[in-house]
Please model this.
Amino acid sequence: MSAQGSSNADWPMWGYDLGNHRYNPNETTITPANVGKLKLRWAFAFPDTMISSSQPTVIGDTVYVGSWNGNVYALDVATGKQKWAFFTGITGKTGSIRVGVVVSHDLVLFGDQLGRFFAVNKANGTLAWIQQDMEKHPLAQITGSPVAYGDRIYVPMASREENAAADLTYPCCMFRGSLIALNITDGSVAWRFYTVDEPKPSNDGLKLRGPSGVGIWSTPAIDPDEGLIYVSTGNSYSPPVSPYSDAMLAINLKDGTLRWSTQLIKDDWANKGCEATPAVNCEGQPGKDFDFGSSPILFTAQTKDGPRKLVAAEQKNGILHALNALTGEIIWEKSVGQAVAYPWGLSFDGKRVYVSDNSFDKNGGIYALDPATGATLWQTESMPCLHGPEQPAEACWSGYMAAAVSTPNLLWLGAMDGQMRALDAGTGKVLWAYHTARYVRSENGIPGRGGSIGPTNATIANGQVYVMSGYAPWTPRMMDGNVLFVFWIEQPLRF
Model:
């Protein structure tokens, strides 16, 4: 049941649907006519952390959300009261959860920053199974949300090894990115697709090994009709460069074999050792690390030749690529930012593709694009900046990392200055805004302070808006925080 009594506008996974449209077509309670009446209903403050970046999943009367403190929480949507919490530390090691959870087969499914995967019983938060052996590398991590389809859950694997390479004593690099299909019933591995070959020593006089890297940082998209799962990939960590790095791949759901691959930038290997003085673990000329952080989005565009399936994602150089989803052929490309950009995803409502300018440290605008051609339908200027309670005014940054979200006739985007906005999807006009970078009284009694709205953006479900506020402060222009804000349109009491 929704905040207002409707019942079918849940948000079940990171991308809302298998195509990663991040569009909730059933959310009709909030409209352009009444969105300005949104008000805070409750707030939940996460203890023992100051990062809030796991996207909430809403099913019926419960919101499920992960935390960097190693817990997944089940909260009542009307009150914010805790129903249960599951702690990854029951294994002896606590893993932060930055991904959105998936609810399927009466299980809550998620991965952590230690590369492990959990299935928890939806009813009471008890452990159903854990998969700790699918990836042996000690620096493996799961940063993309999993996707459930049929009797399998598909898990993208990335790592922190790129940063570890800055240590002269570290034997760089040996991690291999992969997509892993697990059986939902018990967590056993059904198949695995590696994005890079086995690493080998590249020079007898050095510790450098390659090829390596090519993590999958983001959430895959699935086309059940074609039997394909799509991923976008990261850069190589060391030479030789994998042909699957900085690429979009279509993989067969049944057995994990490759259908097609399109590499958008060649020769892009990089690691943090190349940025050291003197450089370490850096043999030859590195690339610019312009890989994919953005999740692929699968959609059908209406063209002059009829409907065409496209898959699109944005690279860190600010280029949005749309490919033929059946062949990998590039159909259109659009510059929507500048290097270095940190994009995490798009939204598609059947009419327009929505994306923000994710350029780092830039107060960029927002785009609505023609799905068939990439032409700009409308574009906003940069938004006014409001600094946080402990942030100097000159450090204010109103740009974006958030993956766009849409509902009928509305576009939702959170900014790095903590402002959450609802825009008219047809024009880009701002219809509602709320500044989350503030101190707030929480439902659970923990001191709460919001900050930057990072990649998660917002979940819109059953008449409520769920916003995670607080991101890792790489620079003074980013603000940490520990709050889940929940908004609704209050209804008058009826007697």
Observations:
- The chain has one domain: 35-488.
- Helices lie at 161-164.
- Residues 124 and 240 are 48 Å apart (CA to CA).
